[in-house]
Amino acid sequence: MTSKLVPSNPAEVMVIRDVVPRTITTLSVPFARFGRIKVGGRGTIVRLQNGSLAVFSPVALTEEVKQKVAELGEVKYITALDIEHHIFLGPWYAAYPNAKVLGPEGLPEKRKSQKNEDVPFAHVFTKDKPITSIDPDFDREFEWEYVPAHQNKEIVFNHKPTRTLIEADLMFNYPSTEQYSRTGESATTGVFTKIFGSLTNTQGAAQKKAIWYGISSGDRTGFARSVSKIHKWDFDRIIPCHGDVIENGGKGIFERVMEWHLDLAKKG
User: Fold this and answer.
1) What is the pLDDT of residue 5?
2) Domains, the chain, ranges and CATH?
3) pLDDT digits (tens, 9 = 90+) for 32-61
4) DSSP codes of every residue in the chain
5) pTM of the complete model
6) Name one Pfam family in it (predicted).
């Protein structure tokens, strides 16, 4: 299944880009859900003010990525932003064994059942026991919200110094133009991709409806509560795992997509 999801030649198709010089680097790759839907994939590296690195939703650890990491600093944190974004945790932890691994509840058990590499989790986010601190350096620069009401058990981070929201599947920004830019193929071709894209762009109301009637339907109140907390943060840029980076104006786009949930939170 993995071979159908991720590229066999990641070094040839990955886009390594400094979104914020010496602070935020994205690793964008083609990624086909079910082998057919071009959603794209993205890892994000944040360089903290003390020089350590936090990696979110890691993608393939190519030689070029290793070189970039070496230029930036030492990997101290590796986070799977939800139970789906964990494929490359093993290789990253093997290369940087001093890093703290973070992930949502259910992921350690899932990896064990799938016979993935043994990766020790330093912090597991749960609904019953919220994590209020990772360590002083990390806490100083990030705020986070665990969204257990999301079907994928999302963890969303805001890098306060750069006002950058980092998320996996909370919100998409189709099409995945950058992620397919080195493949020689369009990011929008294919019937299933077109259908999916119509539901996950940020231009109309389709994604708002998809989240309301689909993603959050199991616990809409809980989802709205988390969205309301995230909305209180000061962010402008949004880096999603799927689709293009929203370089600016992200807060307004977030408000539009999450409008119904924000309204529900106000009523509650």
Assistant:
1) 56
2) 2-267 (3.60.15.10)
3) 887 789 999 999 999 999 999 999 999 999
4) -HHHHS-S-HHHH-EEEEEETTTEEEEEE--EETTTEE--EEEEEEE-TTSEEEEES-----HHHHHHHHHH-EEEEEE-SSTTS-TTHHHHHHH-TTSEEEEETTHHHHHHHTT------SEEE-SSS----S-HHHHHHEEEEEETTSTT-EEEEEEGGGTEEE-SSSS-B---TGGGTTTTS-SS-SHHHHHHHHHH-SSSSHHHHHIIIIITTTSHHHHHHHHHHHHTS---EEE-SSB--B-S-HHHHHHHHTHHHHHHHHH-
5) 0.96
6) DUF4336
